[in-house]
Structure formats: C-alpha cells, structure tokens
Amino acid sequence: MVEYVEGDLVLTVPEEFTPENFDSGSHGMSHCLKAVDYVFEIPSHLVFLEIKDPDCPPPAKIKEKKDLARIESEKDDFVRRFKSGAIDEELAKKHRDTWMYKRSEQKVGLKPIRYFVLLACKSLSSTEFLARTEGLRRKIPVNGRSGQDWSWLIEDCAVVSLEAWNKYFPKIPIVRSSAKE
User: Fold this and answer.
1) DSSP characters for 135-163?
2) Which secondary structure element, helix H or strand E, spans residue 103, and what is its range?
3) pLDDT tens-digit profile of 127-168?
4) Domain range summary for the chain, segments of one domain joined by +
C-alpha cells in the first residue's frame, strides 16, 4: 500500500494500482500544466483523482482570530464558487492537461478514463454534488453531440463526497488524519 497525504486527508492506494502523485510536479511541466492530484490504474480503468478539502481543520499552530477568519473566508469562497459552477472550468482544465500529458506518455487509450473530484465538505448536499458532476460533464465533455463517441477522451466523471468515495472505492480509502487521533 502507498499512502499520500493531502492536507488532513490520507489516500491509501494498493501498489498494484501503480499510483502516482501527479500534482507533485515530477512531470516537470508545472509552469504550464494544470494537473490532477493523483493518477492510478485499477484493473478496468485509468483513474484521475482531484481532491479538494474545504473542511480541512486549520493547523493547530494557528491561534490568531484574524488567521482563523481568513481560513473560514477562503472556505466560504470555495464553497460559493463550487455551488455556482465557477470551478468547473478549472477542474476541466486539470483533466485536459493531465490527459494530454498521459497521452504523450502513451498511457491513454489502453484503458478507459474515469475522472473523480473528491470534495470533502459536509455542508454540501447530494443535489449540489450532482449539479457539479453535470457541469463538469458539459465542460470536458463526456458526451459529444449527436451520438459522437468521446470515450477516447473520458468514459465518465463524477464529483463525489468523501463518504461516497469510500463507499464506491473501499480498496482505495481516503480518511481524515485528524479523525485517527
């Protein structure tokens, strides 16, 4: 098993899924590439995973009220942008750029791609997650016009909660490190 820490979240991926922390900058293209956080290969698919964690607790060393207020304001701003669909374009670019890079490595095309955006935010409803999934599907696009086949680009995408991720991917759990303590 390989563990990756993303703020307060810990992603555990079996080694046989060849996990890659793609947003680490190891690809050398950070100056011009918007990358998803992780890429791994499950038996049936290539998975692109982007993690957003507005519920991440502030670091223990932050005690100043103004700093805590700034963190809360940033969270509120992110949630507002999420609900309005303003982040859809950014998320679509992450898929597109990662797809292009993986295509140049000839990793794309061997298996269908599924792109997941995990959003750890308990204040959002399933309706809001569904709305962002539909918005992202339009931006990528998952389906072409008039029956066009876009499966070469992406088979599907979804914006999911932390709970939904763990339900559908029990072999690739994501947990809060602060919840372990």
Assistant:
1) HHHHHTTSS-STT---TTT-SEEEEEEHH
2) helix 88-104
3) 999 999 999 998 887 766 666 666 667 888 999 999 999 999
4) 2-180
